[in-house]
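Sample pair:
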Amino acid sequence: MPMPLPLAGDLEFGFMAVATDVASARETAEFAEFHRFDSVWTGDHMAFPLPILDPLLQLELIAAFNPRITVGTGVYLLPLRHPTLVAKQVATIDRLTGGRFIFGVGVGGEFPVEYEVCGVPVKERGARLGEAIPILKGLWSGEAFASDGIFYPFPEVKMLPTPVQPGGPPIWCGGRSEAALRRIGRMADGWMSYVVAPDRYRQGLETIAAAAEEAGRTIEQLGTAHLLFAWIDDDYERALDAATEHLSMRYAMDFRKPAQRYAALGSPAEVAAKIAEFRDAGVRHFVLDMTGPFEERDAQLERFASEVRPLL
């Protein structure tokens, strides 16, 4: 068995958000502050069944209205972009937020057209991500850096200013495949899982630890996050119906069985019990994705803050 990974002690809670304009960004920031959430997150897609805006621009706007909140991408499809451009954008948002940014990255692939429109072969997405992460860290170092990689070769360059966070913001990778987990162990700062059960999360951490050990890498603290679909209702079946309807539309497939398996649904006690399972498996940062009617999401997050969080 690999050595146990060092994890944070306290639980943190954030939520997925959308800032469609200045007013909604302010409302999101003030809502998060009032209900004492730790973070706000946005997703990323080029082409998606639902309308979606650029995540970095949304997060900067939200952070401008809240001096405390951490903001993060959950997750940014890094292989769709050249990493030098991303390094500059992320260094900028880290500076503008005063070092309150977590860079969650992933490969996507469930919508191959996104790769087609960006001119990137979808089968290269994992390899491109693996090459891009060291480039980001190299450019954020403030020292002269060159790349001799397959996808992104470039001569020595120094990119300034550096991010506020030494070495750049933490990079938390999504993914649940063996290759994705081993990549995290070799080079990432955290794992942001998605559509996994608690047992799978625990096993994933073992794979990450083994890969880090094999690479001779010492991890001071691994960020462990989980994007959790959730809906609170005193009747479990109503909660399941709400989640199924929304997620089936979002992913253009029947999501009822996955919702039953992976989502936290039902009464506050049932939702808290599911979160406790993930906590025991190693999750320390929960990103809530309230999967039901959009107009009810604020009320759902209020219920979480007042009725679920005290149970944890």
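Residues 264 and 271 are 5 Å apart (CA to CA).
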